[in-house]
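Morning F.,

Quick status update on the modeling queue. The single chain you submitted on Monday has been processed. Sequence for confirmation:
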Amino acid sequence: MTTVIGVDVGGTFTDLVLHDAATGEIRVAKQPTTPSAPERGVLAAVDAAVPADLLARCRHFVHGTTVGLNALLERRGATVGLITTAGFRDVLEIRRGDRDDPYDLFWTPPPPLVPRRLRLEVTERVAADGSVACDLEPEDVRRAAEVFAAEGVDAVAIVLVNSYANPAHEARAAELLRQAGFAGPVSLSHEVSGEYREYERTCTTVVDAFVRHRMGPYLHNLDRELRARGFAGELLVTRSGGGALALAEAAARPFETILSGPVAGAAATARLAASLGPSLGIGTAVAADVGGTSFDTALIEDGRLPLLYQGEVVGLPLQSPWVDVRSVGAGGGSVAYADAGGLLRVGPRSAGADPGPACYQRGGTEPTVTDAALHLGMIPRGHISGGIELSEDAAARALAPLAGPTGIDGVDAVAVGVVRIAAAHMAQAVRGVTVERGVDPRGTAVVAFGGAGPVFGCLLADELDVDTVVVPPNAGNFSAVGLVQADIVRSAARTMVRPLDDEALPLVDQVTRTLFERLAQPGAVREVDLDLRHRGQEHTLTISVRLGEDNLTAVSARFSEAYHRAFGHTLPDPLEIVTVRATARVVLDADRPMVPAPPSGSGGRGTTRLWSFRRGAWTEAPVVRREDLEGVTEGPLLVVEPTATTYVDAGFVVDAHESGCLVITRKDRA
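Structure tokens below.
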């Protein structure tokens, strides 16, 4: 076992968990995020919880970051130039011809990241089988370099048709670009994706070039500051598809880190379900991560992450391994307001970390979900993590103006409405990852975490008619726990459209050998997946394959089972392979246990005035430290710990499991 630090940067708070393998010591910290310079919040969390001698013993610093995502959301990245095959200049604007919202008559697609004047064509053509139909014209590349120099282009994306089948022209174009004097980053589509579909591959490569401008300097600055504090280990960055990349790899392939933050919590949930599922009574779990800015959820079946191989951010498709995490703007900082018709609304806009909810007393005046929860006693009065002192008066002052325009009678009713609406938004997101996949949410267990997740556990259970809620140790920092448990993962893919027949698996074996040579990950566990479909269909299902063990019948049967589970029927049509996927996984510590919660370090809290949603009334309820909870305890009550508060409503009971988890179960269905 090794000493590991995990740091997750959220929209409102930056969370840290340290697990010292030598002593078993656990350290946690929660500091306000610094949106203008995220590394300052990361370093503040390190300074608050990790002394220099312990930092020097740390072998891995695993970081979940939103820098790449924020660059896309804010459209603040590099000035990108695009070199593409003649005739494909406008693929970023033509898109797929579909609409993100089919019912919005005025919907317009987001503008492309590369304006038309910086999208330049070169003469060349590679066929789908990799043969060269037309040689690359070097002079076209040189002319493009002249335009980029005149326009002040920072990074260049090179995307040539069918380069996944033969990358020679892309490699030559990059060489010519360098010879012409371009010194900035160059993203080559065959290195970024290796898959067909020109629009998606072009978009992915452009995103990679766009976010490099911010990701590279950010990661290197963070690494430098950590080493100045005595860190001598390896900085890792989590991937959108789970696992982590080394710093150099993350800086070279930043598109793989776009959703690294939300994925960590889902990964921690999957690990919890895989290791403790039987003893906790968890079969299928729903990750419910309620942060300050958003609610993130994922469906965990059989302890496995729901992995996709194409995602989308702000209308931009990305060909990258992608854990299916759905996010909605319903977090503790989500702003409540009255719309033009006098209806009470919550989110998606957030007060964020600066200024934050009104009750934080940091300049915020708008009412938020946190203000409503504090007013209802769902959060204990006083200080919370990050050195923030909560003000009930400030929360009430922010909520009061909503009573008039909405016609709601009084601040109490406004607060109840805000919390209920936020819970309804969260429940709808959960239905999106369960019902859409044919899974009944009533048969799942909700794993509630994030700073506000345990506050909403019982409300979500009632919204979804779920009987079990699990609150893991270090719930407020559970995404950072997922980082502490991460493996180093690299992946590559290659499109190879051909029938699935007796000759296919030996060819797949050859392709995977090439892909693993490219990944060059010594000591890694090798995983192979195939994208398969029925001949004549457009889209695929991804099936794991054990090369050397599986035969054609076994692979076909596995596909048929997955197809039936997804669509409710099977087809007799022959199968074909579309894409071969290789993943190299270095397991940092297969035996790393769950990270237990540190003691609260404070005395008993007595009782508090608490709103019970099930009773629809105020009640006097006990406040119990997590480590003092013994046996089965009936709600209503609050369970407090350093980074989160668990709200247990009437009609539920809570029990401290030997693993350190809190298990909340429904006592009745009143």
